[in-house]
Prior knowledge:
Low-confidence stretches: none
Helix content: 25-40%
Number of helices: 9
Order of helices and strands: HEHEEHEHHHEHEEHEEEEH
Number of strands: 11
Radius of gyration: 24 Å
Distance between the termini: 45 Å
Mean pLDDT: 89
Strand content: 15-25%
Amino acid sequence: xxxxxxxxxxxxxxxxxxxxxxxxxxxxxxxxxxxxxxxxxxxxxxxxxxxxxxxxxxxxxxxxxxxxxxxxxxxxxxxxxxxxxxxxxxxxxxxxxxxxxxxxxxxxxxxxxxxxxxxxxxxxxxxxxxxxxxxxxxxxxxxxxxxxxxxxxxxxxxxxxxxxxxxxxxxxxxxxxxxxxxxxxxxxxxxxxxxxxxxxxxxxxxxxxxxxxxxxxxxxxxxxxxxxxxxxxxxxxxxxxxxxxxxxxxxxxxxxxxxxxxxxxxxxxxxxxxxxxxxx
Length: 280
């Protein structure tokens, strides 16, 4: 108590009044989301959503794992959730049939109050949210982080990329390597960062009919590349450069059409904000 007694003896006559409007808003958002049902994270469900900004929560086998926001740059909630659907479809140790979501449309005027952060703060008092603290939704960290050894609790260690995932949009038949690489990058459910070799327009890739997995596509690209080039599958994305480097977080290398597997290193140290990177 910071006040003091009044002359009439009726006790304290001045004190501090504390009201956290943002905490109240966070509590109300969380309650509103808890009152909703949950839908499968699928194209069928997303097609029913309006292209409006808002907040959402993801669940795996009924367990709450992530809270996020969607604004106009994501094309609203369906666009943002569609990004997550695509990303999760390319991960191991996760069945999309087990992933559900709920969401709230939020007026743009209210979005200035960062409703996602209000929800994160609300749940932080209750133990946190697993994927919000593990790197899910992070952007490509760039070339300088390719050599990073990921922590065992990082999202990309728990759910590494799936090289058996199907590639969308690659045309069967003869493709020049430049076109093939562009379509491969666009058709993967995870990031493929590469430098285009000078011979890319002059080298052909024969793509077979039927479904094409990422692994098959990288084998085709590797066989078409000069022998000094290497494709490296890390735990969270794939890179292609003219090099012969060993990456501690790599699971597979493609060199001159051949494949070399290795067990990725993982650090047992706790996650830090630096490990999480920038969020998309």
